[in-house]
Amino acid sequence: MFGPLMINTWIAATAVAVIAGVTGFFAVLRGSTFAAHAIPNGAFAGAAGASLLGLNPFAGLAVFSLAGALGIAGLSRRARNDVATALTFVLMLGIGALFVSWSSGYAQEAYSLLFGEVFGVSADQVLPILILGAVSVAAIVVMFRPLMFSSALPEVAEARGVRARRMELAFLLVMALATSMTVPVVGALLMFSLMIGPAAAARSLTPRPARAMALSVGIALVTVWAGIAISYQTDWPLGFFVGVIGAVFFLLGRAYAAVASRKTPSRWSPGRYDT
Amino acid sequence: MNILRHIIEPGFFGSGPVHIALAVGTVVAVTSAVTGVFTVTRGQSFAGHSLADIATTGGSGAFLIGINQFWGYLAFGAGAAAFMEMIGIQRRRGRDVATGVVLGAALGLAALFLYLGTQYSTTTGASFTILFGSIFVITPSTVPALIVSALLALGTVIALARVLLLSSLSPDLAAARGVPVRAVGAAFLMALAVSVALSAVVIGAVLSTALLIGPAATALRVTKGPVRAAAVAAGIGVAATWLGILLAYDSYYWPPAGRGWPVSFFVVTLVVGGYLVTYLRRPVTAAEPAPDAEHACSAL
User: Fold this and answer.
1) CA distance A225 to A216
2) B105 vs A274: CB contact, 8 Å cut-off?
3) Closest-approach residue (CA) in chain B for A250
4) pLDDT tens digits along B169-225
5) Cβ–Cβ of A28/B115 closer than 8 Å?
6) Average pLDDT of chain B?
7) Which of B43, B101, B262 is the closest to A82 by Cβ?
8) From the candidates A33, A113, A158, which should be mutated to test the interface with B, based on the most B CB atoms within 10 A?
9) Nearest CA in chain B to A253
């Protein structure tokens, strides 16, 4: 399990967990869970298009995830956020359906893009993943304060000169960047569970932002590592374990928050970001 | 894809699969449009899409254990709706997180079911079919079940319309008037689950979401009042579906593959295109959460 064939898998999965924990924290905090689902899944269409043209799927993923982020942010200017996300998303998937219908014998590759190919990570895939991961984490760290501000207290942030729309766009672009590197590894469907489950659990455990973000990364790491270990033993898909372990962490977090708030109602208020 | 393989007859209107596609497409488009008006007003687009994805997971699970897929769709759709409701879909901010966690777990199960499914059969295109569906390969025996459940969902939504609007726009006011806000929300979510689950199974999760959100969002931009919005949305949905089916039929000989372009591509493009036209034509002054919903309430 820790042999030379698996070393790339462990490195790539660790990088993916860190980036998912960091971006997922803000996705949960800002309530942009739908975008976290739409961007990776919609980007799948880009990979289908790239393979049709004989290009590197990374390029297709990057183009489509960035286009998705721009589409969501652009349409949200004058429409409800969830409607903008839904329409951008179905348009991308519709185009994806077209690409897939044009190419032949794509089904197996589509399956691996949707559900991941974590045991097939090659050495030359690891470096771009690490670089893109470092860039996205650095971007989040640089934006941390204004992003936190505009997520938790949008009105106050706006009054203090933080441009909410610009922050939204910046955040979506970082998510798109993270997506284009993670989709070939964990798959589009499961990149999403890795962003949401651990971050939502972390948010229930502590109200302090920095601690919650660290916790979110930690839980994401545990989820992925445990998932790989079990998946390696059982041969069942990693996506299944990531999805289920993430949900279990979320439920544990909620249970803990419920117990804690019953004990000391004044200090514990996991819903305080909701205001 | 074998989308048009079943159409051997030369004439569009002489083809059996086209008849079924048109009939089913119409029922789904009308139900989705009416349900969609409330889904958009309540800000539950994500839940609407998630329930479609989750239902297809249930379908593959039922296939795996050898029971009628219909029960798998319904069980997973209704179960997911109940679970979302339980862990906090009623709060505006926590809603998307609750939806996301349930969706994440369901997608994990989908990965497992598809994996186990491909162990025992060689349907490599299974994941693709589940996601994108195909309106041209509907088995006629599923049509009655689809129509009954669509009518049930439609009836529930129409019966609840008044309290639903009030409790969406002003939960406090609704509660003060004695409306059981949470129960109404749960009932709507169930109706949404049933209508979305069945349409996702028949026409694919992508198309189901497009027909749920697109026509309703367009109608809410151009009309005032829920009844008119529902009527306009239904018209847009049906028009897009019919035109999409016609174009897909025509595209059989189009380049590059000579296999026909997917219906979902045409319908999605038409629906989103229609939305963009109204979006660009009407420069609403500010990004209000739901400008037309206010009028919707006063019109009732």
Assistant:
1) 14
2) no
3) B101
4) 887 888 888 888 888 888 999 999 988 887 777 677 788 899 999 999 999 999 888
5) no
6) 78
7) B43
8) A33
9) B87
Pairwise CA distance, residues A57 & A48, whole Å: 8
Q: A42 — contact with chain B (CB < 8 Å)?
A: no
- Among chain B residues, the shortest Cα distance to A116 is held by B111
Q: Which ipTM score applies to this complex?
A: 0.84
CB A13 within 8 A of CB A186: yes
Task: Test A107 with B44 for CB contact under 8 angstroms.
Answer: no
Model confidence pLDDT, tens digit, residues B42-71: 888 999 999 988 888 887 787 788 777 777
CA distance readout (Å), B80 to A26, A89, B75, B158, B186:
25, 21, 8, 23, 11
B269 closest CB neighbour out of A75, A76, A94 = A94
Instruction: List CB contacts (< 8 A) between A37 and chain B.
Output: 46, 49-50, 100, 103
Domain-embedded: residue B4: no
What is the domain-level CATH number for residue A97?
A: 1.10.3470.10
DSSP-based helix, strand, coil % in chain A, nearest 5: 85, 0, 15
Q: List CB contacts (< 8 A) between B261 and chain A.
A: 98, 101
CATH number for the domain including B157? 1.10.3470.10
Domain membership flag for residue B1: no
Provide mean pLDDT across the span B25-43. Answer: 90
**Entry pTM:** 0.84
> Reduced to 3 states, what is the DSSP secondary structure of residue B256?
coil
Q: Is residue A2 part of a domain?
A: no
Provide, as residue numbers in chain B, all residues whose Cβ is less than 8 Å from the Cβ of A244.
105, 108-109
Q: What is the pLDDT of residue A111?
A: 63
**Any CB–CB contact under 8 A between A40 and chain B?**
no
Do residues A209 and A186 lie in contact, with contact meaning Cβ atoms separated by under 8 Å? no
Whole-angstrom Cα distance, residue B171 to residue B181? 7
Q: Pick from A86, A249, A178: which is nearest to B108 by CA?
A: A249
First to last CA, chain B: 47
Contact B132 A111 (CB under 8 A): no
CB B184 within 8 A of CB B160: yes
Of B34, B79, B69, the closest CA to residue B145 belongs to: B69
Nearest one of B274, B169, B278 to B221, comparing CA atoms: B278
Minimum Cα–Cα distance from A194: chain B residue: B104
Number of domains in chain B: 1
Contacts of B194 (CB under 8 A, 6+ apart): B74, B77, B78, B149, B152, B153
Asked if B100 and A196 come within 8 Å (Cβ–Cβ), the reply is yes
Question: Which residues constitute the domain of residue B197?
Answer: 16-299
Chain B positions in Cβ-Cβ contact with residue A80 (cut-off 8 Å): 40, 43, 45, 217, 289-290
Residue B8 maps to a domain = no
